[in-house]
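Lecture notes, unit on protein representations.

Consider one protein chain, 387 amino acids long.
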Amino acid sequence: MAQTNTSGVSFMLTDEQVMLQKMAREFTANEIMPVAAEYDEHATFPEDIFHKARELGIVNMNIPEEYGGVGATAFEECVVAEELAYGCTGISTSITTNGLGALPIILAGNEQQKQYWLGERLSDKGEFVSYGVTEAAAGSNVVGIETRAEQKNGSYIINGSKTFITNASHAHFFTIFAKTDPSAGHRGMTCFVVDRDAPGVKVGKKFDKIGQRASDTAEIVLEDVEVPAENVIGEVGRGFYLAMAVFDHSRPGVAAAAVGLQRRALDESVKYAKERLAFGVPIYQHQAIGHKIADMAINYEAARLLVWQAAWQVDNGIANPKVPAYAKAFAADMATKAAVDAVQVLGGYGYMKEYPVEKLLRDVKIFQIYEGTSEIQRNIVVRELFR
């Protein structure tokens, strides 16, 4: 993760990681920040930015090099995610969702599946993939999904629907979780790759969201969709365990995006508090404001360290769900606090669309909801502490 020293621990980035961070920061400044407000206002999907990022090598980062990807570590993904999210978490979500959709194939796919779906479809053709777990009646309770996959003549017939699916309107294929044995509880779930062009696949309405509006979110409806057995990812009946492994790998990156938004809130607050005068002095000199900004800085540094630890754990093959849960819950909660406080620092101006912190406040809330709510993260921590 970092350069070695005599103590065995270092918080320095390697030269290569510094270059990667700089590249992502410059891309954000040049390609994302100038259009973020416009894309947000019109809920424009940033396909053009996605392809520019792909050419630069900051899309499909977790896909191994042998399948045309970057082969980046989870830590490197987090470094990039923070930078992209600094500019706009809606755009960054659209850019990075391929990494989530590809994870089941990366973690459990066979060689043929990896060559085709990761190599040919995602890397060579530059397609989009969406990750399909959430349903109208099954969000935090993954075991409660109602989508069914019945075996028939060597194939599977899938019926059901998925909701709140990121990039669904633009995805060329989906990694879908369905019950192959409804009576078996969490042992009856299986993951499938479903092609967008398969008969019976329909993408429903696109949701009109309060924040992260540049990110597409829509429903997927599956009606008698026939999927060949070769599209089963991993073992039949092991889908729940695969979904949990995906969360452990994906949560550090989502937490890193929250950290990026948190840093933006901090920077905007510092900038304004130096320029704005009240009672004859810059407002940061008033303790009520200065301490609020100091707390933002403290929480930012702490959240980033938790994210780095969670990513380091993934890269070192350590399966400890507590740490991704720590990172996701703390980063989401502290980013939300930072956005609220940034609006307070800017006062009336913070409430106006003319200033970026208004958008930060709308964008941030979803971090406490998706990829496992803050409440679910705490449930995971409790479960692990009391095993």
